C-alpha cells in the first residue's frame, strides 16, 4: 500500500467530532476500529468523556483489516505525526510500535493497573514501561447453529475431524432442502493477520508448536503443523466457499449471520450481533471452544487477541490523551461495551458481575477459553513480528489455495524465517 494511499485513508476515515463542550478544552484524536459496532461505541464514549471533561474527541475510523491498520499507524508514527493522539492497538503491536508510545505509568496509579489481567499487562510492558492499557481481550471461538444440530441430531464437535463431518452433514441436508448457498464452515481466510490467528489455532490444536518458540527456535516445519494445514486446505471448495480465501471477520459473520453457514470461527464480538433483534439467527446460535486436532500434544487452542489503548509520544496533549485512555479502559466503560457489544473485558472482576453474565451468558464459556489461549510469537520476534506473520500467512494462504501442499510450503517458510532471524537470533 502506497504512502499516498495511506495518507488519503487517514482523511477518508474521519467520522466527525464529538459534541462541542460548553467550556474550552483541548482536542484529542482517537483512531478507533470499525468492525461491527465499534464506531458507534467509540463515538458514544467520546461524547460522554467530552461532556465530562470539556475536551473534544475526534474519531478516526481505522480500516477493518488489521494489516492495513498497522501500515497506516506505522506511517503516522514513524513520521512523528501528532495528528492522532490515542491509538487502538492490537495485542501484538507493542513490540512493533512501542517505541512511539508514552509510558502510561506516569499517569496511571498502580491500583488501576492491578485491576487488569496480569498476563495482559505483562505483555504490554517493555523495559518497565507500560505502553498501553488493556481495553478488551479476545480469543477465537466456535459458533454453531444449535437449531440445525437439533434437526440433524448432532453433538458439538470436540475435534476438527468431527467438525468437518458435521459440517458436511448439515451442508448436504440444507442444500437438499433448497438452500444452495449454504456452507458448512466459514472463517478468516484472507492473506492478513486474521489468517495468522486462525492458522495458529489449527497448528497448536494439532500439537504443531507456536511457529517460533519462546527461545527463538523456529519449529513451524513439522508433520503435525502440516497435517493441520492440509486438513484446512481440504475445506476449501467443500465445506467452505472458495471465497473464504478473501474473508475477514465481517465477511465470515455476514455469511453466518444471514443463516448460510453451520459453523463459524470468529471473535466474541460477533455474538452480540448474532443475537441482535434483526438477526436471522437470533436464538439459534451455540458457542463452544474451537476443536482440537489429534496426536500427541493435541488440545483446544484459541489465539489470544484483544485490543489496547496507547498514547502517542507525539501528541500535543499527552496528559489529556492518557486521561481519555483511562476512561476508555475503566471498569464502567468496559462493562458498557460488554453489555452493548459483547466485548470481552480485561478486568477479571467483571466476569463475576451478575448483571453482565445475565446479558452475556456466553462469557462463562469465553472466560474458560481465555485460560487456554495461544499467543502469537510477537514477544520473541519483537519488531520483526509483522514480517514473521506476513511470511506465515502467505505460506498458509498458498496451502489453502492449493499452491503447494503444507509440507512444501512450511519447508520454504522455515528457510525464509531462518534468513529473517539470522539463524534464530531475533
Please explain how this structure is put together.
The chain is α/β, with parallel strands linked by helices. The chain has two domains: 3-139 and 304-371, 3-Layer(aba) Sandwich (D-Maltodextrin-Binding Protein, domain 2), CATH 3.40.190; 147-303 and 375-421, Periplasmic binding protein-like II (D-Maltodextrin-Binding Protein, domain 2, 3-Layer(aba) Sandwich). The chain has helices spanning 3-12, 38-53, 66-78, 94-97, 110-114, 118-123, 146-151, 160-176, 193-205, 223-235, 249-257, 269-274, 318-328, 331-341, 354-359, 363-369, 378-381, 385-400, 406-421; strands spanning 14-17, 27-32, 56-61, 86-90, 125-126, 129-130, 133-139, 141-145, 183-186, 261-266, 285-288, 302-311, 344-345, 373-374. α9 packs across α10 (223-235), α9 packs across α18 (385-400) and α18 (385-400) packs antiparallel against α19 (406-421). The longest helix has 17 residues, at 160-176. It is globular, with a radius of gyration of 21 Å. The two termini are 26 Å apart.
Describe what is shown at a glance.
This is Trehalose/maltose transport system substrate-binding protein. Keywords: Signal, Transport. The chain has 426 residues and is of the alpha/beta class.
Give short descriptive properties of this protein.
426 residues; Trehalose/maltose transport system substrate-binding protein; D-Maltodextrin-Binding Protein, domain 2; alpha/beta; four-stranded mixed sheet; 19 helices; Bact_solute-bd_prot1; 2 domains; eight-stranded mixed sheet
Amino acid at each position: 500500500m502506497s504512502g499516498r494511499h495511506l495518507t488519503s485513508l487517514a482523511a477518508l476515515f474521519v467520522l466527525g467530532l464529538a459534541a462541542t463542550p460548553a467550556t474550552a478544552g483541548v482536542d484529542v484524536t482517537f483512531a478507533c476500529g470499525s468492525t461491527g459496532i465499534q464506531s458507534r461505541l467509540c463515538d458514544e464514549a467520546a461524547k460522554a468523556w467530552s461532556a465530562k471533561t470539556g475536551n473534544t474527541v475526534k474519531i478516526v475510523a481505522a480500516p477493518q483489516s488489521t494489516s492495513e491498520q498497522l501500515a497506516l499507524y506505522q506511517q503516522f508514527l514513524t513520521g512523528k505525526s501528532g495528528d492522532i493522539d490515542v491509538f487502538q492497538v492490537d495485542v501484538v503491536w507493542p513490540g512493533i510500535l512501542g517505541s512511539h508510545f508514552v509510558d502510561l505509568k506516569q499517569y496511571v496509579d498502580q491500583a488501576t493497573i492491578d485491576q487488569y489481567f496480569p498476563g495482559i499487562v505483562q505483555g504490554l510492558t517493555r523495559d518497565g514501561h507500560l505502553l498501553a492499557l488493556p481495553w478488551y481481550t479476545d480469543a477465537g471461538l466456535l459458533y454453531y447453529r444449535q437449531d440445525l444440530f437439533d434437526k440433524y441430531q448432532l453433538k458439538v464437535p470436540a475435534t476438527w475431524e468431527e467438525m468437518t463431518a458435521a459440517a458436511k452433514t448439515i451442508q448436504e441436508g440444507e442444500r437438499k432442502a433448497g438452500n444452495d448457498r449454504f456452507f458448512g464452515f466459514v472463517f478468516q481466510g484472507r492473506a492478513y493477520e486474521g489468517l495468522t490467528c486462525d492458522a495458529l489455532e489449527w497448528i497448536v490444536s494439532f500439537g504443531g508448536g507456536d511457529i517460533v518458540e519462546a527461545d527463538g527456535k523456529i519449529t513451524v516445519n513439522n508433520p503435525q503443523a502440516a497435517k493441520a494445514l492440509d486438513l484446512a486446505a481440504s475445506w476449501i471448495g467443500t465445506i467452505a466457499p472458495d471465497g473464504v480465501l478473501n474473508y475477514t471477520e465481517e465477511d465470515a459473520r455476514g455469511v453466518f449471520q444471514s443463516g448460510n453457514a453451520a459453523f463459524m470461527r470468529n471473535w466474541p464480538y460477533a455474538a452480540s450481533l448474532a443475537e441482535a433483534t434483526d438477526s436471522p439467527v437470533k436464538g439459534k446460535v451455540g458457542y463452544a471452544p474451537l476443536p482440537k486436532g489429534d496426536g500427541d500434544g493435541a488440545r483446544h487452542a484459541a489465539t489470544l487477541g484483544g485490543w489496547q489503548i496507547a498514547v502517542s509520544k507525539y501528541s500535543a496533549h499527552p496528559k489529556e490523551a492518557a486521561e481519555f485512555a483511562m476512561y476508555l479502559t475503566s471498569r464502567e466503560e468496559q462493562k458498557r461495551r460488554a453489555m452493548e457489544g459483547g466485548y470481552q473485558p480485561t478486568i477479571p472482576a467483571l466476569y463475576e458481575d451478575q448483571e453482565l453474565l445475565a446479558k452475556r451468558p456466553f462469557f462463562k464459556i469465553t472466560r474458560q477459553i481465555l485460560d487456554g489461549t495461544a499467543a502469537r510469537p510477537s514477544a520473541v520476534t519483537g519488531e520483526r513480528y509483522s514480517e514473521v506473520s506476513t511470511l506465515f500467512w502467505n505460506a498458509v494462504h498458498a496451502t489453502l489455495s492449493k499452491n503447494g501442499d503444507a509440507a512444501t510450503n512450511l519447508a520454504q517458510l522455515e528457510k525464509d524465517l531462518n534468513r529473517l532471524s539470522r539463524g534464530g537470533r531475533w
